[in-house]
Write a structure and sequence with these properties.
Strand content: under 5%
Shape: globular
Helix content: 40-55%
Distance between the termini: 88 Å
Radius of gyration: 28 Å
Order of helices and strands: HHHHHHHHHHHHHEEEHHHHHH
Number of strands: 3
CATH topology of the largest domain: hpI Integrase, Chain A
Structural class: mainly alpha
CATH class of the largest domain: Mainly Alpha
Largest sheet: 3 strands, antiparallel
Oligomer: single chain
């Protein structure tokens, strides 16, 4: 595979003769498969060959490398005098090339995966069962399962391994002490996770009934603030900032239109697959929280934007996610954070300044626009997949002009 990137016989012999030689062709193949550019792959391959000489001069073998080796190699590179290496200047390609090469060695079993070698403390069996129950019976997302499981594990560490002896007083004291060390947002989530865990224990007879009621309510005025949304002019500027024929701009435009036209969540966009688009019916199948699945109409401009991106989308073997990263290695977005990052960058390009800069601001924008165009709340709730109409009613406060027309004056203001 080295011949894909190098032609000179002398260079090929040098790269294959060093300590990294037995694995260098396979590494070259992995770089090509992951979609790295020709220039980037050459730099990474040179760094991989050089890393082998560096490790050898330290009296070690490639299998002995760990996560600190790349940093040590990077520091050494500026004053390098290793034989059979090119020397050169320190740059990020050196560091990332060495890290990428070690990751490849871990993949093929030459080096040990440090994450797997560290033995974490065993998780309580009841927490493992709780996580499984959340996934199977509640359809909870991975982030929710992780958050609820962490809260359950902390509660067990504080009150002991036997939930049958837990008391309401103990649960309440733990909660009060715990919220002293966190903010309001974390406290609200802690209330939800602890009550869910205690209900689970109660149903299966592991603790006394109704113990979840011992978790105090945290003062928070739900839906009290105004929804944060973009004005029509800001939306137009945001979409215009994604115009262009490059793969990145086409992807960003499709993402922005999905969010602002259909009010999808960032996680919904990250999970979208090619089979979720029903082109003949002009609809989009979306699976949200709790595996709640709906079919939404696919607007013409959104469909055109997706088609335009798919024409240039990198090919990934065995994966049909619509949206992937724009830099190698090409991978689908791991979660909604990547989608929110796309929105934030587009807002910077467009010069749009708002209090909320993530993807959820566009969900609020879609809801308020539907409301302003006279769409009933129950239909907005269907599009946004709200479980209760009261959540959708939150957006009724967005039309401040209409609210001013129906607002009544304070009694003391009357003549």
């Amino acid at each position: 595979m080295l011949e894909t990137y190098f032609v000179a016989p002398k260079t090929l012999r040098r790269l294959r003769a060093g300590p990294s030689g037995p694995y260098i062709d396979g590494f070259a193949g992995s770089l090509e498969q992951d979609g790295f550019s020709h220039a980037c792959a050459i730099r990474y391959l040179r760094a991989a060959a050089h890393l082998g000489h560096f490790v050898q001069r330290q009296g070690r073998m490639l299998m002995d490398t760990d996560s600190s080796t790349a940093e040590a190699f990077f520091r050494h590179f500026g004053a390098c005098d290793c034989p059979h290496s090119n020397g050169g200047k320190r740059n990020h390609h050196t560091y990332f090339g060495a890290k990428r090469y070690r990751a490849y060695l871990v993949t093929i079993g030459v080096c040990q995966d440090e994450a797997k070698s560290e033995q974490p403390s065993p998780e309580p069996a009841v927490v493992i069962a709780f996580r499984h129950w959340l996934r199977k019976h509640r359809g909870a997302a991975d982030g929710t399962v992780k958050q609820y499981g962490r809260g359950a594990e902390e509660l067990i560490k504080a009150l002991g391994d036997d939930p049958s002896v837990w008391t309401a007083g103990g649960v309440r004291r733990y909660f009060v002490e715990r919220i002293d060390r966190c903010g309001a947002g974390t406290a609200e989530k802690l209330v939800t996770s602890l009550r869910a865990f205690l209900r689970y224990l109660s149903v299966f007879g592991h603790c006394q009934a109704d113990l979840h009621e011992a978790v105090p309510a945290f003062a928070a005025w739900r839906l009290a603030d105004l929804p944060r949304y973009l004005t029509p002019d800001q939306v137009d500027r945001l979409i215009a900032a994604c115009n262009g024929r490059s793969r990145e701009r086409r992807r960003d435009r499709a993402v922005i239109l999905l969010l602002v036209r259909l009010g999808l969540r960032a996680g919904d966009v990250a999970r979208l697959r090619i089979d979720d688009i029903e082109w003949s019916a002009g609809s989009l199948r979306v699976t949200g929280k709790g595996r709640y699945q709906v079919r939404l109409p696919l607007p013409q401009d959104v469909g055109d934007a997706i088609v335009g991106y798919l024409e240039l989308r990198p090919r990934i073997s065995g994966d049909d996610h619509i949206f992937v990263r724009n830099i190698a290695p090409y991978r689908p977005f791991r979660c909604g954070d990547g989608v929110s990052h796309v929105v934030r960058r587009a807002m910077q390009r467009a010069g749009v300044v708002t209090p909320a800069k993530g993807a959820h601001a566009l969900r609020h924008t879609a809801a308020t626009e539907m409301l302003r165009h006279g769409v009933p709340l129950d239909q907005i709730a269907l599009v946004l997949r709200h479980r209760g109409i009261d959540t959708t009613a939150y957006y009724a406060k967005a039309d401040v002009g209409l609210l001013k027309r129906i607002a009544q004056p304070w009694p003391e203001a009357l003549p």
